[in-house]
Amino acid sequence: MITAERKPLEEIIDSIRPFQRILLVGCNECVTVCAAGGRKEVGILSSLLQMSFLKQGKNLQIREHTLERQCDPEYVEELTSLVDGVEAILSMACGCGVQELSRRFKNKPVFPAVNTTFMGASERQGVWAERCRGCGDCLLGITGGICPIARCSKQLMNGPCGGSTSGKCEISPEVDCAWQLIWDRLKLLGLENRYEEIIPAKDWRPGGAAGPRKIIREDLAE
Amino acid sequence: MKTDSVLEKVLNAGELAVTSECGPPRGSVPEKIRQKAEMLKGYIDAVNVTDNQTAMVRMSSFAAGVFLRQLGLHPILQMVTRDRNRLAMQADILGAYAHGINTMLCLSGDHPYFGDHPMAAPVHDLDSIQFVQLVKKMREEGRFQGGGEIENPPKMFIGAAANPFADPFELRVARLAKKVAAGADFIQTQCIYNVDKFEKWMEGVCQRGLHQKCYILAGVTPLKSVGMARYMKNKVPGMDVPQELVDRMAGVPKDKQAEEGIQICVETIERLKMVKGVAGFHIMAIEWEQKVPEIVERAGLYPRPKVE
Amino acid sequence: MEAFEPVIIAFCCHYCAYTAADMAGSQRLCYPPNVKIIRVPCSGKVDTLHLLKAFENGADGVYVAGCLEGDCHFKSGNVRAAKRVAQVRQLLDEIGIGGERVEMVNLSAGMGERFAEMARQITEKIRKLGPNPIRNITRLAS
Q: What is the three-class DSSP state of C2?
């Protein structure tokens, strides 16, 4: 999922300071899974903002709503009646959702309530870790299912570097050395010989080096 | 002979090569380069110019290398993939070669986490092995990585680094094999304190005949104090300092520790001379360059052979 | 001017805390009427949102009373509750309401005396802290 973390409260409060009526929108997908912007987090943020504004002697009317996703125009359309009379929109979705709201409701300022971080997976309850950088040319099939671009601090395609220590990255004992993981997996799969095959220099264009990316499916697009 | 590199000439002649390091200044102060050059001249065949070492900004290795060349030394241009993409790397290689620099070392580089700009975006367009391939293609095919032809292609003597002490040990010979297959002509190793482990690595290296495809220079660094020994042992990733060495340094009074460190360094070189496959030494006396001449002399490596 | 009488919400788990409160009652032990008890099946049922809403609606102090460590009827509900209380303390500090107003307590079903004692202690603590800063501010209907 795309992971995110709620912005510091001070920053959020600052961004909506001038307003008295806002729409607070959550998202039922990725940010729900990582407990950053789902229905519950909307309720929590709403309560905190309410108390903060009251303490300043100001009134804040918050309309709360959680969409199935904020990154699809059909779902965003559901907000049409709810934005009436609202001065600003505060979105708890990832950057994709915030931009979709912005695109649809051009006349309302839209503010992000979370910082979108990475594409990752749940390691266990409450812990999410980066797994994918969207390089557009997936090589997981040759690296034993472990991504050196997302999980190696230096995105080496022919690692490990000389800083690997007891299976951990030189930058921190909390970070696994991706190439140790890859090597261990290659051994498990009986593919040790693959290690010496040099992975050549990467073409970064599918990964964004050629500009912002778009996928157009001719069979689906109208 | 693949290039005009003096280092290649010395190695090709079957002599034990000696290289050292010159870290550029943290400012626009060419005088500091001159001072270090004066200390090293005549005692080494070639000198590494480091590239934003430990991710701390310093004068570029290219600029410092040009100064060193002008002073009559033979720079080994270090370049890290952390700070520049393939366009910048190839551009710098063309420029360096035009200034008479014909030897280089291809590295990934220490992570910005350790340096003075942890907020910077690391580049890593290529890794060190892909970088070696790139430099080889420029020399052997006269082409840029993207395929275009190069006018007067640079003929670089290509070096890479190897760390027999990093984990996992079982991969360290295979990683060297990859660098050799990519085109590395010579290797400089991380500084050696654990000679037993180094010998074990060299066994694996020689078994595969890698020492015949590529010259291996053993890295050594003199310890200045027991504090330095402990720091290297505990705080530097990929460094192996045996406890006996720490104890040996600790067993000597503070004002005699520097001398003990030099003694250990010379003994290490003597022991390494006996190891099959070792083609020379890379003496890294960081901020202690003035000791290099003494080490070279005491290790019986002076005078340097005349090959030019 | 009227003396400040704190309004305190106590989320009490059915198996331990509520039973202890019940025992305090049957033993005719006195504890301040400021404490309003809400019975929950387990302290782990209490969510961050419940705690915040209590303060938003004007409570001066809130506590969550669960089983003793290791004795939770639902294994680790009291551990989860403690983590949420810790999170709410931080959030209340960040918005200037004051994290000291919320706390987690643990007791067993037989601790009638202890329940009454805790209720007294917490009431006094909150009395000294003063009213919830937003307690008397009128709000616009949304």
A: coil
- The model carries a pTM of 0.92
Topology at the third CATH level for domain B6-298: TIM Barrel (3.20.20)
Fold (CATH) for C8-129: Rossmann fold (3.40.50)
* DSSP single-letter state for residue B209: T
Whether residues C142 and A63 touch (CB distance < 8 A) is answered with yes
pLDDT one-digit tens code per residue, B113-152? 999 999 999 999 999 999 999 999 999 999 999 999 999 9
Q: pLDDT for A109-148, tens place per residue?
A: 999 999 999 999 999 999 999 999 999 999 999 999 999 9
Each domain of chain A, given as residue ranges in start order, spans: 2-118, 133-200
* Residue whose token pair is 């998202």: A27
Q: Do A154 and B181 touch (CB under 8 A)?
A: no
Q: How far is A147 from chain C (nearest CA, A)?
A: 34
Is residue B46 within 8 Å of B19, Cβ to Cβ? yes
Nearest to B178 among A153, A158, A183 (CB): A158
Q: What is the pLDDT of residue C137?
A: 74
Q: Which two tokens stand for residue B60?
A: 């570029």
Chains A and C touch (3+ CB pairs under 8 A): yes
CATH 3.40.50.1970 fits A2-118, yes or no: no
Tell if the CB–CB gap between A44 and C49 is shorter than 8 Å: yes
Q: What ipTM was assigned to the predicted interfaces of this complex?
A: 0.91
Interchain contact, C94 vs A9, CB within 8 Å? yes
Contact B39, B293 (CB under 8 A): yes
Report, as ranges of residue numbers, the positions in chain C whose pLDDT lies below 70.
Answer: 1, 138-142
Ordered DSSP codes for B5-19: -HHHHHHHTTPPEEE
For chain B, give every domain's residue range: 6-298
Inter-helix orientation angle B257-273/B243-250, to 10°: 140
Nearest residue of A to residue B112, measured between CA atoms: A171
Residues in B closer than 8 angstroms to A201, CB to CB, are 86, 125-126, 130, 133-134, 145
Q: For residue A92, which phi and psi values (nearest 5 degrees)?
A: -100, 10
Q: How many CB atoms lie within 10 A of CB A77?
A: 11
